[in-house]
Protein: tRNA N6-adenosine threonylcarbamoyltransferase
Amino acid sequence: MGSPIVLGIESSCDETGAGLVRDGRLLGQAVASSMDEHARFGGVVPEIASRAHLHALGPVIRQALDEAGLGLSDVDAVAVTTGPGLSGALQVGVAGAKSIAYALGVPLHGVHHLAGHVAADTLEHGPLPNPCVVLVVSGGHTSLLLVRDLARDPIVHLGDTLDDAAGECFDKVARVFGLPYPGGPAIDRAARVGDPRAVPFPRPLPGSYDFSFSGLKTAAARWAEGRAGRELPVADGAASLQEAVADVLTRRAMAACREYGVGTLVVVGGVAANSRVRSLAEERCRAAGIALRVPPLRLCTDNGAMIAAVGDLLVRAGAEPAPLDVSIDPSAPL
Ligand code: KG4
Ligand code: ZN
Structure:
């Protein structure tokens, strides 16, 4: 028998994901998103997300298996996100994963959503160097992590946002600027023709390795309100906001690499798609002699492959499986 095939399931927010991984290699994956259904509310509505997962989970697993050229009976272990995330949303994925593990008689592994984001990069660039610093930055997270051996050592949580996530800041400011949801990509597009030095937005740097974006969001809203009745120079506002966010994110990440003597920075999450976050991270890493790893966007945003990647590491490390009565943990600490 070859190495085990691990099915990963993700349903913590608005993406239903399934992925299949064997020996650190991605065999197939599929994602369904309920983002469009939340768009008119300007943010994720938990009840809508849960119903969408219920609808999508079966077809998404089928699609991932088809892409891999596998059948359900080929699955040797199941990994599922148990938290953190929306409780109703998590329950759908965990219930599905338990049923499959029970029916196939294979082990079940509970996975922390952030460990999944960290592992996503291994599917593109191979095993992570030990240690490395990982910046997980999306609509739901802004976390700076020190990662050693993902399957054996606990992840060290260096810092987090004290208020809004960076993606949330982009989404909320985009709304004030009259740009569509999700705001991150819209700000990025608008910023292309803007001047990043046009508006001196604050660079909030709270204690240690934490972040804070609510002051920046308020400053951007005030700046827009101050121009009521006149045409808003959206491109300049977007470029200046993006510059401020990219500056604080990369500044903190570089400081963590320096303090812990780490030679590799990994940036994951939806905001890793931001062109200025990428270019500034590249500039600063190059200047400091630090290797930068950013997985492709399909692995950056929430997906099941990243959960399968953690499951695969756990299975190969001989980790104890979770019991079939494992619970969800919506506010799971690392
Ligand atoms: O990882 P993700 O798909 O979902 C979670 O939030 O977990 O990330 C979505 C977030 C949204 O806030 C979106 O606005 C932001 O990532 N985003 C971007 C860009 N693309 C997506 N933010 C800035 N620039 C982008 N190009
Ligand atoms: Zn996520």
